[in-house]
Specification:
The protein has 239 residues and is mainly α. 54% of the residues lie in helices and 5% in strands. The chain is globular.
């Protein structure tokens, strides 16, 4: 099905170029503050999810790049890491059910450190050229839901105003591309575009016609599968 993804991969790559341009601009203007360098892997231990288009794109290039024992080893690592992520999200879900404040729970989850399955023993990314947008922006100031963030190893000073990337706007664009893709596929899983997927699960998942809801087999179980996929945003169901 990769050919059907091509127009949407092109849209995603256009967004990536814009993001890379923003990073380079900030890096040039604040060279003393952006401390990203080869071998620094702080961002590779951050816990975050991918939108559908990002997951498909990463999966596509993972399967094109790796095969045989090397691929099997990476999938084994991804499976182990995915189980850990599931436990973190399950605890967060249970905390919310007990009445914990959502913001407090999100802060605790953000403080978790999970090694990316694509991080090599030499602290290099196995798919650096195809890394997600979150990875591309980690070293400069960003904001989401009005809250600012920057890498703890950077030279940006707390309380000082800097050019800041609004991640909410970027995420909206990613969801727009994902929604257009789902509509183009005529998927039976209407809520698939709302999925959020850890990197580990993106590597483990086979995004075939059955999974995407565009095959006769998927049609027979449309209602059941739609409910299942729609539930992926529930922390207790992720992983």
């Amino acid at each position: 099905m990769d050919n059907e993804f091509t127009p949407f991969f092109n849209q995603y790559e256009t967004l990536v170029k814009t993001v890379d341009g923003i990073f380079e601009q900030v890096q040039e203007e604040y060279s003393g503050c952006v401390t990203c360098k080869i071998g620094c892997a702080d961002c590779c231990h951050a816990l975050f999810d991918l939108t559908l288009i990002e997951a498909l794109y990463l999966s596509h290039h993972f399967n094109r790049t790796f095969s045989g024992p090397e691929k099997d080893n990476l999938l084994e690592i991804a499976n182990r890491i995915d189980r850990s992520i599931y436990q973190i999200k399950r605890r967060a879900h249970q905390a919310l059910k007990r009445g914990a404040a959502e913001n407090d729970v999100l802060i605790r989850v953000a403080e978790e450190r999970i090694r990316c399955p694509l991080l090599s023993d030499s602290n290099r990314c196995h798919l650096y050229a195809f890394r997600p947008i979150t990875c591309r922006l980690y070293g400069i100031p960003t904001s989401i839901r009005g809250a600012g963030h920057t890498c703890g190893f950077s030279g940006f000073n707390k309380g000082t105003a800097y050019p800041t990337v609004n991640l909410d706007g970027i995420h909206r664009k990613l969801f727009e591309i994902s929604t257009s893709l789902v509509k183009e596929l005529h998927s039976l899983h209407l809520k698939m575009a709302d999925m959020l997927i850890p990197v580990s699960m993106a590597l483990l998942t086979v995004f075939d016609e059955d999974y995407l809801g565009v095959s006769p087999i998927a049609s027979e179980g449309a209602n059941e599968n739609s409910l299942e996929i729609g539930g992926k945003n529930d922390p207790a169901q992720s992983g």
